[in-house]
Write a structure and sequence with these properties.
5 strands
Length: 131
């Protein structure tokens, strides 16, 4: 599997960890952002070719929910899975993330096995035609 990913997280260390984890499971990080607004601008203006978008939930100015719902309004990315990552994972966060258009949620810290399994499922679900 050689797939592309965009990573959005306001923490440098978290972005580095996510990128290294993605590389371990066969993804190449084609763009990484500290600021979700800048990521949204680039996604809007450059149409970055990516197979998946990974975003943190808690970020200043624009949180992961707002970022995800904004990405879902961009025609080029409507079928691209968006995975939200957070230090918190509860039913309310999961419900809100899915309502914003997230494909799945992961709790930090995550194992490589969980990351790989969740990303594979997101990719499989994204490839299936709407019924």
């Amino acid at each position: 599997m050689n797939l592309n990913a965009v990573v959005v997280d306001d923490c440098d260390i978290a972005r580095q960890l996510i990128q290294a984890s993605l590389a371990e499971v066969g993804f190449t990080c084609v763009a990484e952002y500290e600021c979700p607004a800048r990521a949204l601008d680039d996604l809007t203006n450059q149409c970055i070719a990516t197979d998946i978008i990974i975003t943190d939930f808690m970020m200043p100015a624009m949180d992961g929910l707002e970022f995800c719902s904004s990405v879902r309004r961009l025609p080029f990315y409507q079928g691209v899975p968006v995975v939200m990552i957070s230090t918190r994972k509860n039913d309310d966060l999961l419900r809100r993330a899915l309502a914003a258009g997230a494909s799945d949620c992961l709790k930090k810290p995550f194992s490589l096995e969980e990351l790989e399994t969740r990303l594979q499922l997101c990719m499989q679900n994204a490839r299936q035609p709407d019924q």
